[in-house]
Amino acid sequence: xxxxxxxxxxxxxxxxxxxxxxxxxxxxxxxxxxxxxxxxxxxxxxxxxxxxxxxxxxxxxxxxxxxxxxxxxxxxxxxxxxxxxxxxxxxxxxxxxxxxxxxxxxxxxxxxxxxxxxxxxxxxxxxxxxxxxxxxxxxxxxxxxxxxxxxxxxxxxxxxxxxxxxxxxxxxxxxxxxxxxxxxxxxxxxxxxxxxxxxxxxxxxxxxxxxxxxxxxxxxxxxxxxxxxxxxxxxxxxxxxxxxxxxxxxxxxxxxxxxxxxxxxxxxxxxxxxxxxxxxxxxxxxxxxxxxxxxxxxxxxxxxxxxxxxxxxxxxxxxxxxxxxxxxxxxxxxxxxxxxxxxxxxxxxxxxxxxxxxxxxxxxxxx
Length: 367
Prior knowledge:
The protein is an all-alpha fold. It is built from 15 helices and no strands.
């Protein structure tokens, strides 16, 4: 009787393993033919590579050739970081990571569509899909959208995560799979000067996440940091908008001074494509279904969106005059963008600290 039960269990395990292997091979083939709508980050590419390598070849060797170049060393380090996992676990993690990247980066043939977050967001984890209304005009074209602006709706969805879902996700997360650890600067290559604001924010967020995951009484600590986590997300959106707009303004100035041919830049792209996307991103943050933190920051930036819309309507065919007018207005109102907005963000962060203590009491009381 026992032998029969063991045989049934073994057959079931074998069938399950065969199904996983088949799904893994199909997903690998899909990813090889995948044409993402926006370029995946190096971190995400290495993550997928490492899971695939362990699933196919097992653990990484103890050393690497001294003649290996930087790219080969990066691949080796990624592979080695996943060593110790079984091939079955690596296949499963590869499937999960591949599905996440397909959702985040979309496809050139089928850009990421917006869905109503009231029905599509999975509250058991940080949302990866983008909520929005059913108006197809609100969908950003993934082929021309910079990575930072394309991530705004996704960050809004992440900020919509409830406290219960946040606590549940943290209880199932370790340091290796932590959410902030997996993020990297979106507006500029990591390590560059332009990426410094994002890198600084990500470092602070990772430090906070590390405290959350390693301190005893994880739920109490996570309850305190939940509103701060949401503030970090909206601050990241603000940095993305600032960096994108500043870069576009500098490009416009360079084009007006030296010309498009010498700079290799296009005034049409900067004003007709990039700048309206900044305004669109602000509008997305202000939509009624977005979380309160996103809407508050969106309202703070609403003058920017209104300015771009006004210039587009009044100076539709005069890109140079419109873009120069926007720069003049932004410089004239520098006190609002460099003093008032940062002060409001600091106030929001202080409020989040206060709310954190309240949520600790709620969690402690078991409400």
